[in-house]
Write a structure and sequence with these properties.
There is one protein chain. The protein is about 45% helix and about 10% strand. It is mostly helical. It has one domain. The strands form two sheets. A two-stranded antiparallel sheet has the order 1-2. A two-stranded antiparallel ribbon has the order 3-4. The chain starts with 6 loop residues before the first strand and ends in a 12-residue tail after the last strand.
């Protein structure tokens, strides 16, 4: 069964400490949450990865390739765990947005469209006038 709830993960928009704060928010939201009893990976592993990200960020020195690499590895680990947890939340919550939102994650905006978006009116003999409501960022090909 496919879930209709989709988590919005825009991890690249976060600076290092913002990512760590976001991870703390997700951790706190999922800890003790009866809707998500067995997240994988576990929240202890997630918290340890986030602590490593914070420590690596604090130790970051300008021009030092070793500390920069350590920060990149820590960020990658936290992002990977966040993606896994987002998939877990989607699977558990199925179609229930309230359950998904209780995890702390944001949801993608629904892209559901009306089944009958086109209006066809008979024009002159041999023609049809087609129209559709305006939607920003949407285009149609008329054939």
């Amino acid at each position: 069964m496919k879930s209709n709830v989709k988590i919005a993960l825009y991890l690249s928009r976060y600076a290092l400490l913002e990512l760590a704060e976001f991870a703390d928010h997700i951790h706190d939201s999922m800890t003790g949450n009866v809707n998500f009893p067995n997240p994988s990976p576990g929240l202890v592993v997630f918290q340890a990865a986030n602590v490593e990200l914070r420590n690596a960020t604090k130790a970051l020195k300008s021009g030092d390739k070793a500390t920069k690499l350590k920060v990149e590895e820590a960020r990658y680990e936290v992002e990977t765990i966040l993606k896994s947890l987002a998939s877990y939340v989607e699977y558990i919550s199925r179609d229930n947005e309230a359950i998904a939102l209780s995890s702390g994650f944001e949801l993608q905006k629904s892209t559901t469209r009306e089944a009958n978006i086109f209006k066809a009116v008979q024009g002159a003999v041999g023609t049809v006038e087609l129209s559709t409501p305006y939607e920003k960022g949407v285009s149609y090909v008329w054939e």
